[in-house]
Amino acid sequence: MHVSLRQLQVFLCVAQCRSFSQTGQTLGLTQSAVSRAMVELEGQLHVRLLDRTTREVLLTDAGQLLAQKAAPLLQELADTLAEVADVGHAARGQVRIASSPTLSAALMPACIAACNRELPQIQLQLVDRLQQEVLAQVRSGDVHFGVVVEPPELGDLDCISLQLDPFVAVLPPAHPLMPKAQKAHKATSLRWDQLRGEPLVLLDHASGSRRLMDAALLASGCGPEHCPVVQEVGHVTTAFRMVEAGIGISIMPGLAIPAHGLSSLQVCDLLPQVQRAIMLVRRRQRSLPAAAQAVWDLVARRLTTAPTP
């Protein structure tokens, strides 16, 4: 059986108008085209639907049943298609973004506030996860896209770079390295190789930044044998408290430092500057819904132009 949507539409119009000529005028068809559509429909169903006289068109019992059942179904289909088209073109609905904790805290609140102002019909939900989980959720489609530190391999992901975030050293103000920096007239700067021999408190390997820190330390001659990592933690606040307690010094992304600074600790630029790239990532060759695309564009616009603290 190969009944077409067009045949059903013509039949329902005939059932309402009770005239082939009026149906043709309503649908923009010739009278012969209407007649042919009805013959084809009856042939597919193997039942007579219409009795045509010289004055009017009458429905058979089968025709009455089909008109009664088909009309609400076609209306529901039309409503569904309109709803689908609306979802595809209108920027409304819920959008889920995943981001790692440091980026969530430093970058996403301003983006969410901007979305509330500029795209009020969109509900933006932030999923705050470790970077590995962020990438997994992007790949699985659990979130529309993610904000991450440059992953080691993109593979099945498309990305755009937003901004560069330099690494800094965090240490107590009375630390012996501070006078050395001051003698060099760089009160807030240290060289990477000056960290040689210092115990380190670093973010663990679940952080997207850890491999970049390790590479920078190794390149400056401060590998594990020269700069022992005495503690690995999952949260920047824990690292700060450990530095305050004298357990070691830390290396952090610049975005991890609060805008008002750290009152009890000294933050120093590290030279030569090593930066991590902040990126938007999405599944490759998968189009975003209109609402998600609107949020993607907003986040890209704001974070590309936002200054790094």
TrEMBL record:
InterPro entries: HTH-type_LysR_regulators, LysR_HTH_N, LysR_subst-bd, WH-like_DNA-bd_sf, WH_DNA-bd_sf. Residues 3-60 form the HTH lysR-type domain. It comes from Comamonas sediminis. SUPFAM superfamilies: Periplasmic binding protein-like II, Winged helix' DNA-binding domain. Signal peptide: none annotated. Pfam families: HTH_1, LysR_substrate. It comes from the Bacteria. PANTHER family: HTH-TYPE TRANSCRIPTIONAL REGULATOR YBHD (PTHR30419), LYSR FAMILY TRANSCRIPTIONAL REGULATOR (PTHR30419:SF14). Keywords: DNA-binding, Transcription, Transcription regulation. Belongs to the LysR transcriptional regulatory family. This is LysR family transcriptional regulator.
